[in-house]
Amino acid sequence: MKRHVGVGMDFSAGSEYALNWALSNLARHGDTVFLINVNSDVDYGEGALWMEEGAPLVPLEEIDNPSIMLKYGIKFSADILQQLRLAASQKDLTVALKVYWGDARGKLCRAEVDLELHCLVVGSRGMGMLKRAIMGSVSEYVISNAACPVTVIKSPQQCLELEEVNDV
Question: In CATH, what class is 4-167?
Answer without folding.
Answer: alpha beta
